[in-house]
Design goal:
heterodimer; A: alpha+beta; 7-stranded mixed beta sheet; 20 helices; elongated; B: alpha+beta; Methane Monooxygenase Hydroxylase, Chain G, domain 1; 2 domains; 3-stranded antiparallel beta sheet; about 45% helix; rod-shaped
Chain lengths: ~850, ~350
């Protein structure tokens, strides 16, 4: 909210400097957004007397002037048609910066005549768009004086941000009250006298929607003359960014800011039927004062006369009954509205108005009688006329309540010892009145304008809580909340910087781990994947529904553990079409990142992300990675295409770090359908637990995404990883006898899976075989068509004694037999 | 030395000198010292001589044998040294070649900051709590004293998902991580000391706002926690996090629906240079306050027995400040050049004893 320093001083008697005031505002929670010191920009501009203005000897459109600046007489060349001898004008000396043109003046010569300064238009001073000529001042304007000071526009404009709880501070009086309470000056009393009433109001009120409008006052002022408001009022409104309309409307805007009390004025002669009714809208259109048409719904409270809707209550008035220069009789509306109703109407019609902003935060329910008197007085002062009796409907709602502060709680909750007397004084300065006081506590009446204190809005307890618990905590809340409100007020005025900081007490000398076991494993997975050469990314949780469908939407395809796209997972209010759907896997958004990098000229990538995957069932934590393009080549090993085994290695490294026993993993060929069906696998730990999948992406998935090829990815379902059992390690197995290594080359059908061969070998001699590794697979000229050679190294580990040749031979025979039985492969001759 | 011995010595020495590799050298050795070598033959003939003659001849032969053994061995060493020299020459390679690359990836700055926060707050006794990104409007708003038509709820630019959840509530993308505080209070009796890092969402997209961003919130509930502890805890954190032991920290009155009293926290910086610590300007960095009695009550905690504080800050924001990063958007764009510029070594995770 903006206001000028001089406007503030109509409510606050203070000698404090601007900086003291603005620092205090920030300290007490009315955060300073900025100060516009207009005096600084206008400082060089002074009132001058044009002694003589004659035709320039060498230029038709210019005038050569002699100007008395108050500090001497100078020659000025001026292009304005209205420059004339004897006028009073505004003069800028050399060195002055002209805001309207962005130029700093220098002494110059224009077509042979010296020009040592400038006579200014309003636009050149940055004061509006008037550029018809230079400003003409009245005869009595004192030469040499600052123009801004003389015109009363040297006033700093202060802009503060008011938090949603402080409807009362959306008024200059409210700000002044807070400042006075904080020790910056004294609040000027406000007690408008009653205006004598001479006749019954021509317009009366009727409330048919009492929840929306509990109380309204109104008054007709007849015999008025409406026109532009006086300069001082226009200046104040312009300074805070409002456009002066006419005196009647300007009065309503004045009180909106001065007292935080929005008013509305109807042209009483345009109101049909002498009655204004608060009622629900009935799908009626009306044109508002902003020139737009609105259709009031039954959720809106409207003010209607016999002709229909004339106003959206508390939000915006109507054009049909608006006041203009022909208005001779005005009806003033001073109403109290339900904040929620105003908020709903304002939001529904997308109208932001100063009135709505105040009503939806709650205005002072007791201020209506004073406000209408003050408004009537001001209208009479500006426009003349005689005032009617007050028309009233509804009644002042109940707002009186008390709050109690136990003084020790200032230290117990607020961390600051404040003497009881000081605390009470601070509250009193804010308008709290002491109802009762003893040695330990004070009970105060809450002022009508502080709906944020002891407001007792309804609880919304968790439905999971038993009724007796709700009763207990509800009583606890009732006992504590008003006191917290008061503590906040005292601390705010004292300044939070006066509260001494205290480090948190330690639970023990050495802190316990802050991460859960699962969080620690996730952190380890990140480090492990990064150590494999993958760069960590953080991508958006949303993708496009179209993209989601391309990955998961194919009907009839095996989607693995994924569901198809579901309307429940589309955002109801997306900000962009490409961000309208919750991603089903981070792999989707990672590949989008690959496409974006490829478009920038970086197609060869290794990326990973650990983040949420969304489904109608809930949210999973997934570690996903991609590799695209080619590997990093070098002088020893040329670059090659990335392949499925690269991402499988990444996945295996992560699973190993997570403590998953790799030997027990089963890879099945049923990965989700966005993978290449022949180059992908689902990784299982036992038949039921799916740990994830890996593979080359399906060409149709890749098509159209602008992805580099090949591109391979993996997903680890981190929630499925079991926490490794915390057992003490057994003593290590360190046999005293040398292991024996034997190589086998099997000739197998090329449909035989490596996994099957390896499993058969491991199972052939469980106690003797300590490890099995596959070191070569060959298909080609040297083996029959449809066959492949699979070469395996087996390590036999004797434990009791060195193996004899015969024993080794027997073990080898068992290996060959087991492989033959499981896969039909034979030892290669 | 008799002539024949002198000749053998001279001939052997000449033959050794002529041997340029170990094979030729070995032939010389065998020809002289071998089983059928010339010197061996002469030694064998000693027995045929008379004792006096034999003594004299034997002494001469022994001397000759020692001399020849020495010459043979010396030649062997010379040849081996030459061979090693030649081999080393052959094996010379260009060691200025770049090493075989072993690419390692880097940790994203957001992860790094979350780790640093876990470490610093962990040292102050906090645990890490997490919860789902898709929440309901009660946990995101109602429980936190933001009723349906409260202006603060409108200010949040909430993303909605269609339909309701199992409990019949509107589904939303959480606008802050506060719903996890609600879950924590409902699931665990006080005392509570947790931080809640995570993804958060608001329908806003421009140079300084992203529809998805990260927050960390903190919650401390105990019997005797005061606003003084709030200040101490946050000052301790900010100074440790930014590594500035005398970082100026300012607390200003403000308003959040879920705390009372509420305060904004500013740190000292230089607006012109962006340098943190000095400069006389203030930069708003986080929001905090004493937990509102309504929030405690909504979550089943009796505010007569328990009280505490809560705070929240943007992870990207503090990361940008700490590392002087100018722009928010690249955090989510996965530009490999940006990731490699700002990423962190995975083998140097955050450890308090190594310095944050």
């Amino acid at each position: 909210m903006k206001f000028t320093l001089s406007w503030l001083k109509t409510h606050l008697q203070t000698e404090a400097s601007l900086a003291t005031i603005t620092d205090a505002l920030t300290g007490i929670g009315l955060e300073l957004e900025g100060v516009e010191d207009r005096a600084a920009a206008l400082a060089p501009f002074r009132i001058a007397h044009v002694i003589e203005a004659v035709q320039h000897p060498n230029a038709d459109r210019l005038r050569a002037c002699k100007v008395d600046t108050g500090e001497g007489i100078v020659s000025v060349v001026c292009g304005a048609p209205n420059a004339r001898t004897g006028m009073k004008a505004v003069f800028a000396p050399p060195g002055a910066f002209i805001p309207g043109t962005g130029i700093t003046l220098k002494v110059g010569e224009i077509r042979g005549v010296q020009s040592a300064g400038m006579l200014l238009s309003a636009r050149e001073m940055g004061l509006g768009n008037d550029h018809d000529g230079i400003i003409e001042l009245p005869e009595d304007a004192p030469v040499g004086l600052s123009y801004a000071a003389w015109a009363g526009i040297d006033d700093p404009v202060i802009d503060i941000s008011v938090t949603p709880n402080r409807g009362d501070a959306l008024s200059i009086r409210g700000v002044a009250r807070d400042l006075a309470a904080a020790g910056i000056g004294t609040l000027v009393p406000f007690a408008p006298a009653k205006v004598p009433a001479s006749f019954p109001s021509a317009v009366q009120w009727k409330i048919e929607m009492p929840k929306a409008c509990p109380w309204v006052l109104g008054r007709t002022v007849r015999g008025i003359k409406n026109g532009p408001s006086p300069q001082w009022l226009q200046d104040r409104l312009i300074a805070i960014g409002l456009r002066p309309i006419n005196a009647l409307v300007d009065v309503t805007n004045f009180f909106t800011f001065d007292l935080g009390r929005p008013l509305h004025v109807f042209d009483a002669d345009k109101v049909q039927g002498g009655m204004l009714t608060f009622r629900p809208g009935a799908s009626e259109s009306f044109r508002a004062l902003n020139g737009k048409d609105y259709t009031a719904t039954q959720n809106d409270c409207v003010i209607a006369d016999a002709a229909g809707v004339q106003s959206l209550a508390g939000v915006i008035g109507g054009e049909a009954t608006g006041c203009d220069e022909n208005t001779t009789s005005v009806f003033i509306e001073c109403a109290l509205f339900n904040p929620v109703r105003v908020a709903v109407t304002g939001r529904h019609h997308q109208i932001i108005s100063d009135a709505r902003q105040r009503f939806e935060r709650g205005i002072d329910p007791a201020l209506l009688p004073d406000a209408i008197e003050a408004a009537t007085r001001m209208i009479q002062h500006l426009c003349g006329g005689e005032a009617s009796e007050i028309a009233e409907a509804g009644a002042e709602p109940h707002w009186r309540r008390t709050a109690r502060l136990r003084f020790r709680r200032l230290a117990e909750l607020g961390g600051l010892d404040v003497p009881a007397d000081e605390a009470v004084t601070l509250l009193e300065r804010l308008g709290f009145a002491v109802a009762a006081r003893d040695a330990d506590s004070v009970t105060v009446h809450v002022p009508s304008w502080r709906n944020d204190v002891a407001g007792a809005t309804p609880l919304e307890p968790s439905p999971s809580l038993p009724a007796d618990r709700v009763a207990t905590v509800s009583a606890g809340r009732d006992a504590i909340e008003p006191e917290c409100d008061l503590i906040e007020e005292v601390l705010r005025l004292k300044g939070l910087d006066t509260v001494p900081p205290v480090s948190l007490p330690r639970a023990g000398a050495v802190p316990a781990a802050s991460l859960t076991a699962k969080q620690a494993r996730t952190a380890l997975t990140k480090r492990t994947l990064a150590a494999q050469g993958l760069d960590e990314c953080v991508t958006f949780s949303f993708t496009s529904e179209l993209n989601g469908a391309a990955w998961f939407g194919q009907e009839g395809k095996d989607r693995g553990w994924y569901e198809g796209t579901r309307p429940e997972m589309a955002l109801a209010n997306p900000i962009a079409a490409q961000l309208d759907y919750m991603r089903q896997s981070p792999l989707v958004t990672l590949t989008q990142a690959v496409a974006a990098n490829a478009a920038r000229g970086w197609p060869d990538l290794a990326l990973f992300e650990i983040g949420p995957a969304f489904s109608i069932e809930g949210q999973r934590l997934v570690a996903a990675g991609v590799r695209s393009g080619v590997t990093v080549g070098n002088w020893a090993e040329p670059a090659r295409d990335v392949d499925v085994m690269d991402v499988k290695a990444d996945m295996w490294a992560a699973l190993e770090a997570l403590g998953v026993p790799l030997d027990a993993l089963i890879v099945t060929a049923d990965a989700p359908s966005f993978y290449h069906p022949g180059r992908s696998g689902t990784v299982r730990q036992g038949p039921k637990i799916i740990l994830g999948s890996f593979g080359q992406l399906h060409p149709t998935t890749v098509n159209g995404m602008g992805l580099p090829t090949p591109i391979c990815g993996f997903e680890i379902l981190l929630d499925a990883i079991q926490e490794p059992k915390k057992r003490k390690k057994q003593a290590p197995d360190l046999p005293a006898f040398q292991p024996v290594r034997r190589d086998f080359a099997f000739l197998a059908d090329n449909s035989v899976l490596a996994e099957a061969v390896l499993r058969a070998v491991r199972g052939a001699e469980r106690t003797l075989i300590s490890s099995v590794s596959l070191f070569d697979v060959y298909e080609g000229d040297k083996v029959a068509e449809g066959k492949k050679s699979v070469a395996i190294e087996v390590v036999f580990q004797p434990r009791e004694r060195t193996l004899t040749d015969a024993e080794i031979e027997a073990a080898c025979q068992k290996v060959v037999a087991a492989v033959a039985k499981a896969t039909g492969a034979v030892l290669r001759g | 030395m008799t002539d024949d011995l002198s000749r053998l010595k001279a001939e052997t020495e000449a033959a050794l000198a002529a041997a340029t590799d170990l094979r030729a050298w070995d032939a010389v050795r065998v020809g002289v010292l071998g089983k059928n070598g010339r010197l061996t033959g002469l030694l064998k003939e000693l027995g045929k001589l008379a004792p006096d003659e034999r003594r004299e001849r034997g002494a001469a032969l022994n001397l000759l044998r020692d001399a020849l053994n020495g010459a043979v061995e010396a030649r062997k060493q010379a040849l081996e040294a030459a061979e090693m020299e030649a081999r080393l020459g052959r094996e010379r390679m260009d060691v200025t070649l770049p090493p075989r690359p072993r690419p390692t990836g880097l940790i994203h700055p957001i992860s790094r900051t979350m780790e640093e926060m876990a470490a610093i707050f962990g040292a102050m006794g906090f645990g890490i709590a997490e919860g789902p990104d898709v929440e309901d409007d009660w946990r995101n708003f109602g429980a936190l004293n933001i009723p349906a038509h409260h202006p603060a709820r409108q200010d949040m630019d909430t993303f909605y998902l269609p339909g309701t959840d199992d409990e019949g509530r509107q589904r939303v993308l959480r606008t802050h991580t506060s719903p996890v505080q609600v879950r924590t209070m409902l699931n665990q009796p006080p005392p509570i000391r947790v931080i809640v890092p995570g993804r958060t969402y608001r329908a806003d997209h421009d140079a300084t706002h992203s529809p998805m961003f990260h927050q960390v919130e903190g919650l401390v509930i105990d019997r005797d926690i005061t606003l003084g502890h709030l200040k101490g805890c946050l000052i301790d954190f900010l100074r440790a996090f930014f590594g500035i032991t005398n970082l100026p920290v300012r607390f200003r009155s403000s308003y959040f629906p879920f705390t009372e009293p509420s305060m904004e926290v500013d740190i000292g910086w230089n607006r012109k240079t962006g340098e943190l610590g000095g400069g006389g300007d203030w930069l708003e960095i986080l929001g905090s306050g004493m937990v509102h009695p309504k929030v405690l009550a909504n979550c089943g905690i009796d505010p007569r027995e328990w009280q505490g504080f809560a705070f929240g800050m943007g992870i990207e924001r503090v990361t940008m400040l700490k590392h002087g990063m100018p722009d928010l958007r690249p955090f989510y764009e996965s530009d490999i050049r940006w990731l490699r510029h700002y990423g962190f070594n995975p083998l140097a995770p955050v450890m308090l004893h190594e310095g944050v």
